[in-house]
Specification:
The structure is a homodimer. Chain A is α/β, with parallel strands linked by helices. Chain A contains 9 helices and 15 strands. Chain A folds into 2 domains: about 120 residues, 2-keto-3-deoxy-galactonokinase, substrate binding domain (Nucleotidyltransferase, domain 5, 2-Layer Sandwich), CATH 3.30.420; about 120 residues, 2-keto-3-deoxy-galactonokinase, C-terminal domain (Nucleotidyltransferase, domain 5), CATH 3.30.420.310. In chain A, a hairpin with a 2-residue loop joins strand 12 and strand 13.
Chain lengths: ~300, ~300
């Protein structure tokens, strides 16, 4: 009879709606290998997750040891691999002992999925962003302020004393994608190029008159038809209208708190210029993989 | 050599983005036959229009006479059958002599397409709604007020002394369709049933705090996940948020003008309850085919 031996190396996984990111790490959190594939929750049934994961990590596994896999993101949703539940805000960010262990057929792995965070009132949920926040707080332990994580569903999170106090989600990125790819506006905003001037102008306009923002959308199409305005301008204005609405909605919650943007550089820069356009200063906290930083922090113990 | 004889009967056509409606009329505007098919601008190239039209009206045509066909709608767009141009607001509604004659291969028909109306500043366009307005004004010649035509792209039109003074378009219907069918919200709003109470509540909330409306969207998904709120409530709230935004944007232009809703009964009733919820009274002008009424009025001479 052989004894179970744990592999000192482990695997960090960010499994979202559209992408699966895998990092093979050593004990200290150094990345030995990484993979990014399109195999998100949107296309998988619960029974398919294990096979997909194994197909990408098989070469790191051995029959003699058990390799730990720590997962965050939508794989822990009700429609994901296994429901990892939610912590309830206000709350600490998730710790390793709050992860749900997944029963796997393959004996070489031990998979745990981290919970998300829910907020009863006003109702909201996050799954994945909490791990990015852990990574940020590992660096900046005494942060008291707002963290904005732009994206398909951008999140604004009030963090204080290492806790998630309150948060709010906007569908800005998804609405932008739907309008620019699938609505009547697609004929007017497709192509490359981006007018920073028009972006900022549209942000300010939506910020000052949020009630008018919804009437600005069809106007983009009309400006194309009536004035032959180009896509470089109109795409920037579409982005500016939507981000301006988001910023207008958040304004009352700023209360002079510092704001830090976490995420991918291009999108964070866009939000930074939007926030500066309405007179708010903001810090950028760019990292190639904020989620990995969080997974490492959670596995090695926070703080 | 035979002389050209005009058919006393004629054909009225409303050719939109998704539907083609055809009415075979007598001289007095009585409908002898009608057809509705899905063959809209969205799926046709310019050279295909004539064949599609002929396939649906061939049985009404004769080799001995020329039958007049009067068209309004998106068939007159740049990407339609033939560009029928725009009148420029403020302006009278279109008259028969402003229609563009289309060259057809079939000698049995004479096709004319009515122009739309454009507005240079703020940029806006309509194509088809102007014909519905003609039909309404034929009945109510001295109307001075706003006409709201709810739909995929709802229009608010200020009409005075028989003229289109100014107008504004909202993408409310299209955004509702995109969000309810293609966004993350589809899981939470699909099904039947509609809570009038929640619709009105969401309208009021969006009307009072238009800046917050964009933050209300993801909350629908979260209410489903966190509180298991049902689709009957959430679908009504989605509709209420979007119509409430539209109504909030229009509010400053009301100026105590009367408001008349023109269009399909279910949607007009929804807008009526939204407007009444924010303290505005409104008239309904329901007609099975407001566009036909307009085409008849234009062909027989307005007023």
């Amino acid at each position: 009879m052989t004894e179970t031996v744990m592999n000192p190396n482990w695997i960090a996984v960010d499994w979202g709606t559209t992408n699966l990111r895998i990092w093979h790490c050593d004990q200290a959190g150094n990345v030995l290998d990484e993979t990014k594939v399109q195999a998100g929750m949107g296309t998988l049934t619960a029974s398919e997750y294990e096979g997909v994961l194994i197909s990408h990590i098989d070469h790191h596994l051995s029959d003699d040891v058990i390799t730990e896999v720590l997962v965050c993101g939508m794989a822990g949703a009700r429609q994901g691999w296994q429901d990892a539940g939610y912590l309830t805000a206000p709350c600490d960010t998730p710790a390793l002992n709050q992860a749900v262990t997944v029963h796997t057929a393959d004996p070489r792995i031990m998979v745990r999925i981290l919970p998300g965070i829910k907020q009863p009132e006003p109702a909201d949920v996050m799954r994945g962003e909490e791990t990015q926040i852990v990574g940020f707080l590992k660096q900046t332990t005494d942060y008291n302020g707002l963290i904005c994580l732009p994206g398909t569903h951008s999140k604004w999170v009030h963090v204080q004393n290492g806790q998630v106090v309150e948060f709010q989600t906007f569908m800005t990125g998804e609405v932008y994608d739907l309008l620019s790819r699938s609505s009547v506006l697609k004929h007017s905003v497709s192509g490359d190029g981006f007018s920073q001037f028009d972006f900022v102008d549209a942000v300010k306009s939506a910020f000052e008159n949020p009630a008018d923002a919804s009437s600005q959308l069809f106007r983009l199409r009309a400006q194309h038809l009536v004035h032959d305005t180009g896509a470089t301008i109109l795409r920037a204005r579409l982005s500016g209208i939507l981000i301006g609405q988001e910023v207008a909605a958040m304004q009352r919650q700023w209360n002079h708190l510092p704001i830090t943007l976490i995420g991918e550089e291009a999108l964070c820069s866009l939000y930074k210029s939007a926030l500066e356009a309405v007179g708010t200063s903001v810090d950028l906290n760019l990292s190639a993989a904020p989620t990995l930083r969080g997974l490492i922090a959670i596995r090695t113990g926070k703080g």
